[in-house]
Amino acid sequence: MIRIYRHSFINTLTAIILIGSLAPGIPPAQATQNAYQKGTELARAVYNRPKGHDTRTQGAMILIDQGHSPRIRETYSYRLDKGHGHVLSLTRFTAPADIAGVGLLTIDYPGDKSDQWLYLPALGRVQRIASNRKGGRFVGSDLYYEDIQDREVSMDRHRWVGREKVEGVLCDKVESIPVMASNSVYSKRISWIYSKIMIPLRVDFYQNGRLTPVKRLTVQKVEKIQGYWTVMDSTMEDLEDHHKTIMKIEKIDYNWHLPASLFSLQMLEDPVREAKYRP
Amino acid sequence: MYKDLQRTFNRQDAHLIAVIMACIVGWSAPVMAADTSATYELKPVREYPTRFGAEKEMRVMMRRGKRVEVRKIEKTIHLQRLELGVLPNVSEARAVANKLKRNGLDSLVRRMPSARGYVVSLGAFANQRFLATLRERVARMGFNNLRVVAVDVIQPRFQIVERVRVLRTRQIIPSNGGPQVINGTRVRPARSVPVTMPVATVVKGQGFTSRTAAEHYVERLQREGYTSKIKVKEVTREYSSVQLRVYKKWAHAQRELPVLLTLGLNPRIETDFRERGYAINLGLFTNPSVILHITRKMAQAGFRNIYVIPVTERQPHYIVMKLGPSSKGHVRPARRVPPRSRYKPRSIEAQPTVLVFGAPNQASEMNYGLSDKTIRETGLDVGLRDFRIEYGRLADNKAAGVDASNYLRTTAYLDWKPDNRWEWQLEGRVSAYQQTGKQDFRHTYLETGESFVRYRERHVRVTLGAQKVIWGRVDGIPPTDRLSRADLRRYFLDELPDRRLPVPALRMEWFSGAYKTDIFLVPKFFGAKLPDINSIWSPIDKTNGELIGVKSTPVLAALIHNGRFSDDTKGAGGGGIRFSRTGRGVDFALTVQRARQSTPYYELNPQLRAALLAGVPLVTAMAATRGPTFTGRHPWSWVVGGDVGTVFEGATWRFELAWLSDIPVTTKDFRYKTLNGVNWTAGVEFFPGGGNARVNLQLVGHHLLNAKNVLDNRSTYLLNGEVEDVFLHGRWRTRLRFMSGLEQKDYYLNPELAYLGWEPNEFYLGYEYFGGAPGTFGGFHKNDKMWMLGWRTSF
Known about the structure:
Largest sheet of chain B: 18 strands, antiparallel, barrel
Number of helices of chain B: 14
Oligomer: heterodimer
Radius of gyration of chain A: 18 Å
Order of helices and strands of chain A: HHEEEEEEEEEEEEEHH
Number of strands of chain B: 39
Strand content of chain A: 35-45%
Shape of chain B: elongated
């Protein structure tokens, strides 16, 4: 069975693109204060971008490998932001068949703490799992577990390195380097932020101090839904073996007034109860 | 006459009379007159922090005959906030807050994004002496990171104001037809407006959001000589509500108000019934730039819980229809309508709502068979659930006397959920076992799978029928899993869910937040499903005269080889209750069960035992004994246990413990008896280096209490688990399952390589290795080493 650990799929589709990779820090002495200040401000603006009080999403993740048939993971995800960094999320996998019914409940508390449980229908049991894993591929995709986690702004040093066009759109280019190398699988990220909507249209991921990126995230489609800019289509590509993971949102609703009881053990282990909240 | 009148009226009216008289006399000659007008001014008397206090005082003053009223004002108050920090993380900040609380000081942990840390706020104070005292007190507690921050707070105050009459005198210098001079300003006399015929009958309506405003406008139109009518229409208005949410306590929300007031915002605390908390509402806005400005301002102030919530309201809209000039009074000439411009106003380009970047990506444009149809989980569902076929080639077929052990299984189901409450499921399972070689057999089983009726209520779920319930927390061998039915037809080769069979039972589950109470009642007992006696996976080896887990002796070997076996499965299955908590930090469960273990424990026929002890030869004793030589026992047992699970240092730790009564044992003189015992399992699951590899280790202990002169091991320790890794983007998986005895040589290894690329199919190649000393599990199966090639899939 495909292993599913750490965080929900909605985070995959939104957190990494909207927030995941950006955050502030202490500028090195040789760089100008302004570049760091501007980089940090941009990172914070991306992180604090309005994302609604709650969301319910029908999404899919398509894994594409040249010469092989694509593999698809389909999910329903729910997210409820209770404020002060207290975020609840529930993800239910509906495809492929071997993981259909698997549920993942994550409760993020203020700070770095979080709890996570996995429901395995075959075993009929809810299991607590470790939620602070950084590396490893999320359900076999090109996303590392770190990519789908809520990476706070202060965990990286951000430097504005100029403006550059991405797909014909002028973006602010921000370089993000982890403050503590141990808490990231990446040595550097470079983001091209479209400041009108505060969404990075492209993120290059670097590892082990290499000069060339190992992965690239690109945004193909952004849609304004209920007043919130939402990444509908995006692609994460492994630049070494050209394996791709396309992340699509089929349906999304904001501010549906999802109850906190949806993010409970009872809902996790009973897809029938959860299904009535599906978009 | 003038003086008489003056005497008649009081002095206050003197000036009015003077004016009237002047009018009566006429403007025959220029008259200098003094016009003294009375106006009122509001003179502040006192201020109060609450409306209640102000109104109380107001009533006292009114009784004294003063003309007073209360008005609300906003006043900027300069405070100084005492803070401890900056602290690097929230846990340290909370520790400081707890220490302060223990010393009788209330505080609030605040996040400071600008400083990348947290501060503990002790409050904002105006009294410098109090602040100094508090500062000294906190410093005495050992905190040296104190700081005082200036805060300007705009607070509402309630002011009592007194109406004081002020007399103002103005000079009126009339002139014949010329402008008047009032207080030195020249004012032209109003022109008389000639009466004109109406030029328009209906003029465009004007909209108002409040009835009062509309009525004011109607009055104005009436004054201007128009008739009009108010028409009420319901319109949908869209706003964005800027909120800070959610605060569990009102006091927490209240503490944020000074900061928000300082930012020039107008906060209001509202009860959020849905979240059982409080939200600070900053108002409804329509202008996006205003919203952005406010949210940015708040974000800069360190607020992270900002929400912009679209609000749609149906509101009455009051439209004043100007029908036409009234027949009364003067009517102003109709305003000249400017000629319609030849140029149409530029259409405002609609803001794009979809942005597409780059050239269409062929990969991302494809649909991949995705459907936006919602899977509702209700209705009728029929189909195959899974399928598995496996070919097992014995590595040493000469020793085992078996060439191959093959397996096939599929499950079909019919599931009907008419609504979200009821569920009817019928499941059938076909499993076929084939063994080739000297001891060959072929068995096909058609069995009932999980077939039940289930009812869901708000916090309750009741299931009646055949169901598979595996209690416990650890993988492999959960000590508190005593009510499920074991499937031993493939020994330990499958994973835990496949090693259990459904049992007819009644299950009731109550959910209450993080807590769950689970009651499971099994009215009829079903023993473990055993393989064919000739199967290599049978716990009884009649060929070699061995019983799994028991060190064989010549007598025992002869008994097993020549004896007959039966299983006592009469009676009820028992029941149990499990109370569990799945919440922040730690999960735990407690259970009490009255159960019968499904795995049989073989008792030697007491008659045969007595005969053997009396010295009767084995063959004679067996011939003289009626009934089976060995009877599988499933004694009633009390199980009291619990389990706990938590995450520490990046690993998931699990522990499970059960005290059991009536564990079956065999004494050295082959007598069957029961003893109390303790079973436990401690497990850890982690990902080395944070990569794809997963390691799950479990240490298992079985202990018999007060065990003397028994053949069974008093204490047994096992290490089991699995190591798993996926590579090539999850298309391939390697896995090693293992079990090892710690006291004596006892091994089980199951390496496996699986191809997962064609989902949901799984093709695997594995090897089963057994080895160990006589009397151990590994030793019992040491000749059953096997290569396996299989395919498993789900539908």
